[in-house]
Design goal:
five-stranded parallel sheet; 411 residues; eight-stranded mixed sheet; alpha/beta; 16 helices; Rossmann fold; 42% helix; 2 domains
C-alpha cells in the first residue's frame, strides 16, 4: 500500500520524465550576449546551448551536422540586421526555429525578419526575458505554430527564351554549387515531362522519372509523399522529375506545383528548370506569383532578345515583385552572334548581369561526367557569379597567375 510520500514521489518522477528538452545553438558576436544566454539557460535548468562565433563557416558546418531545435543568432554588431539575416538565411535549415538578437530598434527590422520567418529579440534583455521568449518559441514549435511554420524555400525560376540556350545546364550547376559548396538544401524541378537531359547534367546514372497515376492527386498529398517522388542525389540535393502515360502536360504541371509547395517547407531552394520548349503564358503567371527570383537566359540572337523583351514587358504589366537576373549565354562562338552585347542591353533597356562566353570543351566535359563549376575556366567563374547573385552576395572572381607571372622577378 502506497503512502502519501510515495504518491507525491511518483508524480514528481512523472513530471521530470515528461519535461521537454530541446537542443539549441548560439552564434554570438559579443561576449555579453554569450554570457547572458549561458547563465539564463543554466539558471532555468535547461541544457546549455552550444556557442560558436558568428561566422558563415561555423553556421554552415554546425547547423547541418546537428539536429537543432532552436538557433540563436547574435547580431548586436550588425549595421543592418535584416540584410545580414537575408544573407545567411540559406545556411539555416527550415526545421529549426530561429531567434535573432540585435540592438536595432526599428519596426521595419521586426517586419522584415518576420517575413523571413525569424523571431526578433531586442537587446539588451534580462535572463528572465530571454528564458520566457525561448520557451514561447519552443511552445510554438511543438504546436507547429508561430514564425517557423512560415519559412519556406526560395523559389528560383530558370527561364529560357528559346530552346538550346543552356537553361538546364545553368539550373543544375547552380544547384550543385548551392548544395555542395554553400550547404543549402535544394530541389531541382524538371519541367520536361518526356525526355530531357537533366540526368546528364546532374550526373545521375540509370535515371528514371517517377511515374504518377491518374487520380493520385488526393487530399493526403503531404511532404512525405512529395519526397517519395524525388530522386535523392545526396543529403542536400534531390531532383523532382515525373512522367505519366495517362496524364497530359497541364495535369502534370499541376502535380509538379503541388509537390514543389510541399517540398518548399523543408528545403532552402526550389530551382525550377523552365526551358523554352515547355513554357507557356500560364507558366509565366505562375512564376510571377510563386517564385522569388527569375533567371532569364538569352542567347545573342534577335529572336531570343525579342522574346526576352516580351517576357519583361508581361512581368512589368503584372507588377511582379520578382528579382530578375539576366544571363546571356553564348552556346556558339562569339563570331557567329547576330547581335552584340551593347545592342542587347539597348533593346532590353537594362544591363546583362552575367555573360557566359562560349567554351568549346563544355560538351565534352559534360559527357565525361564532369561538372562545370569544378573546372578552372571562365564559364565556371560565371556560374559561380550567377549563384552569388542569387544569394545576394558580392562575387569575388578568383585570382589566376600565369607561369610567367609566377617566375617574374620583382624590380
Amino acid at each position: 500500500m502506497l503512502n502519501i510520500v510515495d504518491i507525491l514521489k511518483l508524480k514528481n518522477d512523472d513530471a521530470v520524465g515528461k519535461q521537454d528538452t530541446f537542443s539549441a545553438v548560439l552564434f554570438n558576436q559579443t561576449l555579453e550576449c554569450k554570457e547572458l544566454v549561458q547563465e539564463a539557460f543554466r539558471f532555468e535548468g535547461l541544457t546549455t546551448p552550444t556557442t560558436l562565433e558568428n561566422t558563415d563557416e561555423n553556421i554552415r558546418r554546425h547547423v547541418r551536422e546537428s539536429l537543432i531545435d532552436v538557433v540563436l543568432v547574435d547580431l548586436n554588431r550588425s549595421n543592418d540586421v535584416a540584410k545580414d539575416m537575408e544573407r545567411i538565411s540559406h545556411l539555416l535549415p527550415n526545421h529549426a526555429s530561429v531567434i535573432v538578437i540585435g540592438s536595432e530598434d526599428a519596426i521595419s527590422t521586426i517586419r522584415n525578419l518576420k517575413n523571413m520567418g525569424f523571431y526578433y529579440l531586442f537587446w539588451p534583455i534580462t535572463k528572465a526575458e530571454l528564458v520566457d521568449f525561448v520557451k514561447h518559441v519552443y511552445e510554438n514549435r511543438k504546436q507547429q505554430a508561430g514564425l517557423g511554420k512560415n519559412r519556406i524555400a526560395k523559389k528560383v525560376a530558370f527561364w529560357g527564351t528559346k530552346g538550346g540556350s543552356g537553361v538546364t545546364l545553368l539550373t543544375c550547376e547552380v544547384a550543385l554549387i548551392l548544395s555542395n559548396l554553400k550547404n543549402s538544401s535544394c530541389v531541382v524541378v524538371d519541367h520536361h515531362f518526356s525526355g530531357g537531359d537533366i540526368d546528364i547534367f546532374l550526373g545521375i546514372p540509370d535515371f528514371e522519372k517517377r511515374a504518377v497515376q491518374k487520380g493520385g492527386l488526393t487530399a493526403n498529398m503531404d511532404f512525405s509523399y512529395a519526397t517519395s517522388m524525388t530522386k535523392k542525389l545526396n543529403d542536400m540535393l534531390s531532383v523532382l522529375s515525373i512522367e505519366s502515360p495517362e496524364l497530359n502536360e497541364l495535369e502534370l504541371k499541376e502535380y509538379v506545383r503541388i509537390f514543389s509547395t510541399e517540398l518548399a517547407s523543408q528545403n532552402n531552394f526550389i530551382l525550377e528548370d523552365l526551358s523554352c520548349s515547355v513554357n507557356c503564358k500560364k507558366d509565366l503567371i505562375y512564376v510571377s506569383q510563386e517564385c522569388d527570383i527569375f533567371v532569364l537566359t538569352i542567347d545573342p540572337s534577335i529572336s531570343s532578345v525579342r522574346e526576352a523583351g516580351r517576357i519583361i514587358s508581361v512581368l512589368d504589366k503584372i507588377g511582379s515583385p520578382l528579382r530578375c537576373i539576366l544571363v546571356m549565354n553564348y552556346t556558339r562562338p562569339e563570331l557567329s552572334a547576330t547581335i552584340t552585347l551593347a545592342e542587347v542591353e539597348k533593346c532590353l533597356g537594362q544591363k546583362v548581369d552575367v555573360v557566359c562566353g562560349f567554351n568549346k570543351s563544355t560538351s565534352k566535359d559534360i559527357i565525361a561526367g564532369k561538372h562545370i563549376y569544378q573546372l578552372d575556366n571562365a564559364l565556371s567563374d560565371k556560374i559561380h557569379k550567377l549563384t552569388d547573385l542569387i544569394l545576394g552576395q558580392q562575387y569575388m572572381p578568383p585570382t589566376r597567375f600565369s607561369i610567367k607571372q609566377l617566375f617574374k622577378r620583382k624590380p
